[in-house]
Amino acid sequence: MAIEYIHSFLVHPRKNRSDIRKIGGTAVPLNGKLFGLLDEIYSAAEQQCTIDIAFNPSASGTQDNACRALFIDYVGSPTLARGRRIAERLETVTTRRSGMGLLFLIAGKEGRDYKIVVSRFPTDVAILAEENREELSVEFLERVFMKNATAYKAVVYRHASLKAGFWTGRAVDRQINDRVAQISDYWIADFLVSDFEVTGAAGTRRLAQAMRNAARASTNLEIKSEIAAAVTLAKSLKGKKSTTLGFETLLNLSKEAISAINAQIPDHVDDQFLFDWNEFSQYLAYRSVELDNGAILTAESPDFDEVFHRDEAPGGRVRFSTVGRITSERLGKSKVERLGR
Amino acid sequence: MNTDVLRKEYTQRYETALVQLAGAIQVQLTDYLSETPRIDRIGARAKTVDKFLAKARNKDDTGAPKYEEPLDQIQDQVGARIIVFYLSDVENVARVIERYYHHVESRLVVPDSQWKFGYFGRHFILLMPKGLSRPGVSKEHVPQFFELQIKTLFQHAWSEANHDLGYKPTGIPPDPDFERQLAFTSAQSWGADKIFDELHRSRSGQ
Questions:
Q1: Chain B: residue whose CA lies nearest to A64
Q2: Which of A9, A80, A222, B200 could, after both became Cys, cross-link A87 (CB 3.0–4.6 A)?
């Protein structure tokens, strides 16, 4: 662990503005309290940043990414001038809503690897209270930058090769501190020109597979039923960005059901992805309920609870009822064949 | 890095990670494309040690080594190939691939002039998905990327024959008439692909 350079820049909102302004920047000494705080951020970056992201190629499909190029240029030779280009890039995508921020570029070496942590502290207001024996003095502070505020963002990249590496990194966006909220496009899409490493279709398919396999593997009827009900509700996740754990929370799954699903994909529960309803509904298109009297009820997953009306019956039994016109009947050797799939 | 060290490092990577990763990618691609029609075959392979070392020795136009860090820079250590029936199937498959994998490169490889015929193919450089390598394999042995080629049957047939005929290690460069004949066969393949695609579209009402 060895930080070699730290540069800091005050970044103003300048999206869609053409006037040129030189961004104020400074090198931060590698000692003192500020260094202590930044050293903590640098050291813990891989743990704090939990969103796996990857740079996108150029619009024409070549292996070029404007932001990655600036980072590699800076890491190769961390100067104030090269750091300023990164700050300028951040300014051009910063809106008034995102507000002013203090950007830190922290570069170092970890064994053979180059490492860079890019961190943005949001601006805030605060009141400074100083007490001495005689009196209390209070002062309004207008430009305070706070790591723990809700808009703190960071990203970390680490690789041995400046030529071929630095395509993937890990980000954090405290503006969306809530696990199931939307990730702001400002940091990942606009500034970093990146996307989640796991695509929506791949992440959603993995979640759907895990839910299906967990329901099949479980001998607990409550868990099977809970997962099946969650599939019906999953349409509400359409277009949301989160992790498997986040989606499980949104679907109000119990600890037992979550545990059964996560056991199917233990290394992927923190993968962040955009929920792809089309993928999910294709993979778990049908929901079936089998009763101990030999009945099998099947309907498209999102519609199951509307197609079949369920009533509780004496003795822990249930009564399902439905009304419709018969469009087809099938005979077969197995359950799957009877269901026509 | 000298050749002996590179051979040792790549051999270890090949044996511990690449062969298994190629198999896992083939399985994954087959799953993702299970509903996509008119796919002739899906394959994946780990680049052999000798082929890797030969590529690592390549020079650029100035005579300088093309790859200073071949273990990181050579991106087809694992290569996959999807062969489809018709030209329009190439783009259909490409769209599926873009849905499931993060790509850092996507290009249509064509001869550099409309007056030339040669290799045609759709190429991707894709991020190696996490979780495909078997447990216990060091991250250092897992490449960041793999290459995917999507080709029609005719494009594939031409490139295989061209590779066999055009890259014989005789040391004697092919004469112009030999190259012209290869270009002629490429033009025929190109024409056959166009006509088959038109026939396919007319039959399917597209």
A1: B104
A2: A9
